[in-house]
């Protein structure tokens, strides 16, 4: 198959909001290419001199749309139509995709615009939904005002939407999609990178709780800091945000540190800043438990990576985390926002060495059985084949003459007596 993957954002920065999305797209592209498909990935060029390249078996096309500089999503929206026109022109030549897969809502809008006058089917992965983020984050939601209505419009323009968790399936159907037009395909984990054996980041003798996520509203670090009062003698390491040398000037980092001091756990909370993804496995292995407490998470990527490293997860029972973590088997699930239960659960799991060992072994098995990139790519491959089959025009039916009719034609007209 010829597959076009569209992400209208530029490539990820270390702490960019779409870093997980780009990692997902890159791995899906590589897996599909390894299966013999002709894959091209389209992202916006955000610097002069950036060239399109071949990488990991697929072609990465950097689209010259908008200024050659990084743009936040709100400023990218006006260029979506231009992005779609560029794609339409590109696909009018010798190479055109048989299926287009849009990623994130702006990528999906560009993809849908590009193929609107063709019979090329569109698959869409939102990665997050504005209406769901608004519900969970409330006043802290800072997405562009046009996002939610444009996402609703996009659901009517695609052939099928890919959800990454069961909560997202429900949300998409509430937005108006038929259940038959939503496919659940979880994200994958690189089990060659994330596994229990290997180096671990340095640590002291105290038990370690690890939290991974950007320093922004809704990532749940505030809940964890408040919960530490109930945990006892343990350290909370928060990985994410800007590089460590920039934390002192970061407003959210300062706010979290001030909260820790006010709460009386300042000495137990450590912010380490951004960690390159290829080094994250060492941080997971250094932890006794990984806490996943975002107020919104569709993919549950952090919980899966931690589980792949053999570390139990304590997480909020929502989104991809609720799907990934099997309560009392690979970790513990607690009600979202319940800080007291979160703290008590963390204290109990840190005190239970045998329980953590059992959870960790079960977590590795669960990831290797259900969350590999091979499974994700295989599910998408079958989905692409299905939507392509729907869009293909029906073959003309050629009726085979019956033997009697053939014999009559061979005999010629009947002569009159």
TrEMBL record:
Pfam families recorded: Glyco_trans_4_4, Glycos_transf_1
Task: Give the matching InterPro entries.
Answer: Glyco_trans_1, Glyco_trans_4-like_N, Glycosyltransferase_grp1
- Biased composition regions of type Low complexity, renumbered to the chain: 398-409
Q: Where is this region: Disordered?
A: 398-417
- What GO MF annotations does this protein's record show? glycosyltransferase activity
Protein keywords: Glycosyltransferase, Transferase
Q: Where is the Glycosyltransferase subfamily 4-like N-terminal domain?
A: 20-188
Query: Which protein is depicted?
Result: Glycosyltransferase involved in cell wall bisynthesis
Give the lineage: Bacteria, Bacillati, Actinomycetota, Actinomycetes, Micromonosporales
